[in-house]
UniProtKB/TrEMBL annotation:
Its EC number is 1.2.4.4. Its cofactor is thiamine diphosphate. The keyword Heme does not apply. This is 2-oxoisovalerate dehydrogenase subunit alpha. It catalyses: N(6)-[(R)-lipoyl]-L-lysyl-[protein] + 3-methyl-2-oxobutanoate + H(+) = N(6)-[(R)-S(8)-2-methylpropanoyldihydrolipoyl]-L-lysyl-[protein] + CO2. One of its GO terms (molecular function) is magnesium ion binding. Keywords: Oxidoreductase, Thiamine pyrophosphate. One of its GO terms (biological process) is branched-chain amino acid catabolic process. Residues 38-303 form the Dehydrogenase E1 component domain. Pfam families: E1_dh. Belongs to the BCKDHA family.
Length: 364
């Protein structure tokens, strides 16, 4: 389903009828804000990829081409909601208040646990173990139920959980177990699949002979398949299903059909498994271009787009500067995230390291 057609015209598909009003309710400023989010994300993404190629990052996982799915769904969340990402949800993190340099620190290898979710819009840690975040999210959503902070009847207080994962993760046992638990306990959560067509090098049609949204029925969940390059569709559907989750109407699954323009990561060579023709076809359906065409049709002037582009360039330049200036972390930092409370074993190890470093310094 879609709200905007490929040329940016507001033309909801028949399946979008029940969601179109939410998209229509968005102000022009909000839609311009969506484009700003998407441009900033892409500028950050391209800049980080360049940093990796120049030796400043150990690895980079791009989100190029998936901006609409992420921005629309993230803007549908509320401050009290909790977000569990995979490892390429850069737009979602920034929308929830995360400084993008925290993502850089993780991929630079200077931290093991990069940020405090409570201080960053309940945006939890990136998870590189494929699919395991679905179980984390489901367990957390069960905890929300036990705490009584959902389905209270107060929409400003009720909480929900959203978890992001890719088409490849749907083949993992963890993801399927999470769907079983979510359906059994009717957890207040939304499973958001970014179907970018390639699980590293395996095409999605080999993983699933039916659309991934149809799998939801087998677990007893509603499933919606949307055009993941349509930011308004992503917003409208996610907002509706998160409202249902907060109200106690149970979990749901979204399959956002999009495309991974870049490789799976900076270690991947997608030319080995996909054709140039396929890449060009999807590149012509760029989500940023679609929204820009829509805004042009709404009368947004060139000066607004120039300002947004400049803002994206400034963000990328700032991240680059801070990355290059980033100091190496102290060795003692490895002890800070082992346990939540002080522990005698790690305290003894830390004391040994301090004594060792002191003796080494005196010899110098």
């Amino acid at each position: 389903m879609s709200v905007l057609d490929e040329h940016g015209a507001f033309r909801p598909s028949p399946a979008a009828e029940q969601y179109a009003d939410r998209a229509l309710a968005l102000t022009l400023d909000e839609r311009v804000g969506f484009l700003r989010d998407m441009v900033r994300t892409r500028a950050f993404d391209v800049g980080a990829a360049n940093l990796q190629r120049q030796g400043h990052l150990a690895l980079w996982v791009p989100s190029y081409g998936q901006e609409a799915a992420q921005v629309g769904s993230a803007r549908a969340t509320r401050p009290q909601d909790s977000v569990f990402p995979a490892y390429r949800e850069h737009a979602v993190g920034m929308i929830r208040g995360l400084d993008p340099i925290e993502i850089i620190r993780m991929y630079r290898g200077t931290v093991h646990g990069a940020w405090d979710p409570a201080a960053n819009g309940n945006f939890h840690q990136y998870c590189l173990v494929i699919g395991s975040q679905t179980l984390h999210a489901t367990g957390y959503a069960m905890g929300v139920q036990f705490d009584g902070t959902t389905a209270t009847g107060d929409p400003e207080r009720d909480e929900a959980v959203i978890v992001y994962f890719g088409d490849g993760a749907t083949s993992q046992g963890d993801s399927n177990e999470a769907l079983v638990f979510a359906a059994s306990y009717q957890t207040p959560q939304v499973f958001f699949i970014q179907n970018n067509h390639w699980a590293i090098s395996v095409p999605v049609e080999r993983q699933s002979r039916v659309p991934l949204a149809q799998r939801a029925t087998g677990f007893g969940l509603p499933g919606v398949r949307l055009d993941g390059n349509d930011v308004l569709a992503s917003y409208a559907v996610t907002a509706a299903l998160l409202d249902d989750a907060r109200a106690g109407r149970g979990p749901a699954l979204i399959e956002a059909l999009t495309y991974r323009i870049g490789g799976h990561s900076s270690s991947d060579d997608p030319t080995k498994y996909r054709t140039q023709e396929e890449l060009e076809w999807w590149s012509g359906r760029d989500p940023l271009l679609r929204l820009r065409r829509h805004l042009e049709g709404e009368g947004v002037g060139a000066e607004v787009f120039e300002s947004i582009d400049a803002e994206g360039a400034d963000l990328a330049a700032d991240v680059r500067r801070r990355t290059i200036e980033m100091p190496d972390p102290p060795m003692s930092e490895m002890f800070e995230f082992v346990y939540t409370d002080p522990h005698p074993v790690t305290e003894a190890q830390h004391a040994w390291l301090r004594d060792y470093e002191a003796s080494y310094g005196s010899e110098q």
